[in-house]
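Figure 2 data, in text form.
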Amino acid sequence: MAATAVRSGPSQPPNSTVYVKNLEERIKIDDLKEALTEIFSEYGTVINLVAKKNLKAKGQAFVVFEDVEAAERAIQEVQGFELFDKPMLLDFAKTKSDATVQSEGTEEEFELHKRRRLAEKERKQAHQAAEEQKKLKRPAAGTVPDAATSRPIKASRGAGLKSSNPGAGAVVPEEYLPPNKILFVQNLPEDYDVDGLTAIFGRFEGFREVRLVPGRKGIAFVEYEAEAGAISAKESTYGMGLGAESKSIKVVYQRQ
């Protein structure tokens, strides 16, 4: 392991989690984690190490130390050192890790931390999905809009129908809608009523009510006092099997 010529200081405030990037992506995850554990264990007790193989997380890792001082030492000493012929770039993580919050705080604080993290993750997914939709609908540079699609659409005809105009606003897939306090539940067994759904969704914080849709079977709306309760309920019930046939229900946030 050799040092590079340039070493930059951390940009985030100190905490016990070190963010590592510029890692060699072709190395197997188990081999990478073993090498990182061996290196960073020299500077303190490592209580968790996260490295994933999905496309967005490749080349990155999070090293969670028992205390902030160990993380500070690791950043000072390891910054710019080469691992698998690539210089590691280190910084403090933007937020505390689950392992840190769980060890330092109460069970309630840990659950709140997880809900906030999940909400932030879903907001980012919704934003990314909206941006992808905009790119798909944006005409290529230098192209001339077709007369049929560029003609203004009369509001008096086909009101309430979705426009086929490529320039229309992007529609975010319901799986990536940003969190809010109302859930839209689909694929419910026909024999499930308000009481049955209340028994499932009423155990989450801030539950208000279940609303069935008159004349429509298999769907319902569940409302909470705040996003936190809806986030917990969605994460815990999505894909749950109900009824004699154990139908998997679909739980998403209400489109607003």
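Caption note: The two ends are 53 Å apart (CA to CA).
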